[in-house]
Amino acid sequence: MGKDLTRQELLNRDLISYSPKRWRINIPFKDYNLRVEDIVPALSGAIGKVALVAAFAVAWAEGFGINDPSFVVENVRLEIVIASIFTIIFCAFFNPYAGPPGTLAPLIPVVPVMVASGVHPLPFSILVGLVGLVISAFKYFSQIIKINGPGTKGGIILLFGILGISSSLDNLKSWTYSNGAPELLLILLFACLILYILLSKFQLRWLIIPACALVALFVSGLYGLYPGLRTSMAFPIMNPNIWWNEKWGIGWGINLGNIIKALPFAMLAIVMWPLDALAVKTIQETNYPEEAKKAVFDMNSTYTLVSIRNIIGAILGGGQIAAVWRSFMIPLGVVKRPIGGSALILGIIGVVFGILGVPIDIAVFPPLLWLVLIFGVFIPLLEIGLNTVKSIPTAQIASVCLITGIALNPVLGWVASIFIENFKIIKDPENNIELSRRDKVITIIIVSVTIISYFLANVL
What we know:
By secondary structure, the protein is mainly α. It has one domain. The chain has 19 helices and no strands. Helix 2 packs across helix 14 and helix 17 (about 390-405) packs antiparallel against helix 18. The model has no long low-confidence stretch (mean pLDDT about 90).
């Protein structure tokens, strides 16, 4: 018992004394420590990253009818290597206060809607990055959190959670039926549900991604279904011309019409950034000692990095939208480690995964991919959304977002709920936050720009 306490004190001391240099080279073991605990979030983050990028690539490939069998695997290889290099350079050496750039998983179920709306992934990703840079530079993320009240937040999070579970279940069902084992669907879901409940009970839920991966591989293996290990060792394709004109087959798409079509969805993605990061920040602040303020990631420098990474990744041919690396940051907070050392291990593992190729084959194995998304991303989103809705008026505002988002478009659901909430069309006595005139003007601008660009996109 004393030994455990000593170890805990050692970890707390690392957090409290964490003070690496900003925008100068930091040396591992000199400017920050590495511990065996750093391996856990690094491994979880690498597994989660591959699965989430694969889900993005699968969604785009299905939407655009891309039949190239190497598209998904090579896109994952490209994205994880880019993210890992960014993580090593910036989060391990130059600014260990910034969270690594990961994947905006809640946006995955919106990809089919974006394809149907004529959104081209390149201008969309560049637009997200540019808007993100502006907001980071002026430190407006707290403002975004403020003007999205509890009803709007709960509605968006619930909407993305429901859409994600629905699309993931459809894909998992199609895979089990196509392999002549429809009962496998229920067995996989039941096994992971029990696992999810047990890990929650023992406060080990941060292990859900690697645990779901193991369950998917083991249970499918009992049916004689295994990942196809076909991808050989290689460096990622980093020729934008090959990607956009051959792999994607949709060209560069940089024109005014595509920018207008992408704008409302880009704004929705940006809104998700601080909401997504807030959950991660809360976990760190809850688990770290009060004196360990420097160990909690800095939101503005994180999203400056995420924005730049989003633009570069898109130009090179990537299909994901970046955000804080959630599958890394949540376990990091739970095992009580600062960013630097674990980010270094994460970056190294990510580069190794990308070059080897075989880990990507395993991660894109359908049962592993969709179970990781359901239990590692979308069910937690549902829980967060439900916890946000704490009164009947808040539930009514969230319902507007849900119904409009499902019936028409997620973007319209968001702007409808933000307008209703901020102008007290549905009054919530428990929401005592009074918005300033400036906040209301910002709300009107957001709603107007979003609706105008949405309707222009449908005309063009």
